[in-house]
Design brief:
6-stranded antiparallel beta sheet, 5-stranded antiparallel beta sheet, about 260 residues, alpha+beta, 11 strands
């Protein structure tokens, strides 16, 4: 703000007072002249100076002064309170895929989960079917050599492995097979003795003696063997022995595939 000289202010106030009190002074002078006239125009002794008057009222504000030089920047004030969150902006474009980070360490195993529902039953693999069931309806022997028994009546020949012309079973599918065979001896003193063979290798046999009687006797034996495709199985009546059979089929053979070998 612009300051003023006190002397100038005082003089300005005196001028104001003179202007305001001039009529009063003039009136007083007129009255004094009348008194002097009445006193026959004699000059008196000057009086004592009066007491100085009080200061006059402040004058009107002067015109606005020019702006001063800006002051230095004050210290930074304290941070204000956080404002209210604005409306979320639009979703930005998807950024590029970052590089693969390092593999983390393996965590501890989690708790065991609940047991799941039982699944549907799967389809069983197709099992090849091979089976033979045949009987002999006539007697045989005694002979002077080992002879293959030919079964003339066939009940089953699944897989077409058995030949009724030579009495030999030729394996059509590699796998594990079960065979069983039965015989009966004649009433004559001859005994019965039959063996089963794989590729002319004896496996098991069955023997029926005469027991000193002229009655028929019967016996059965079985075997489980592993066969490859093309192997041959047959039963043979041993030389010097005889078999008895008729339409009731007392001599028989049965065999079938238990399971095929995995390829």
């Amino acid at each position: 703000m612009k300051t003023f000289d006190p002397k100038v202010v005082m003089n300005y106030c005196i001028i104001i007072c003179v202007i305001q009190f001039s009529p009063i002074v003039a009136q007083q002078q007129t009255e004094d002249q009348d008194d002097e006239s009445r006193q026959c125009c004699t000059n008196g002794i000057p009086g004592i100076p009066g007491v100085p008057g009080t200061n006059g009222l402040p004058g009107p504000f002067g015109p606005k002064g020019e702006s001063g030089v800006p002051g230095t920047v004050g210290p930074k004030g304290d941070s204000g309170l956080a404002g209210v969150d604005g409306i979320p902006g639009a979703k930005g474009d998807r950024g590029e895929v970052g590089s693969t980070g390092q593999k983390g360490s393996i965590g501890e195993p989690g708790p065991k989960g609940d047991r799941g529902e039982r699944g549907e039953m799967g389809l069983l693999p197709q099992q090849p079917r091979v089976a033979i069931s045949a009987v002999r309806t006539t007697s045989m022997g005694p002979l002077t050599y080992d002879a293959v028994i030919v079964y003339d009546k066939i009940y089953a020949n699944e897989g077409r492995g058995y030949s009724s012309s030579n009495g030999t079973f030729t394996c059509p599918v590699s796998g594990m097979y079960f065979f069983t065979f039965s015989i009966m001896r004649t009433k004559n003193p001859e005994e019965a003795y039959v063996c089963i063979y794989k590729n002319d290798i004896e496996l098991v046999c069955v023997w029926v003696d005469n027991e000193g009687t002229r009655e028929h006797g019967a016996a059965t034996n079985s075997v489980i063997i592993d066969l490859e495709q093309g192997d041959e199985v047959s039963t043979k009546l041993i030389a010097g022995y005889a078999l008895y059979s008729d339409r009731d089929a007392h001599v028989s053979i049965t065999g079938f595939l238990l399971y095929a070998n995995q390829q």
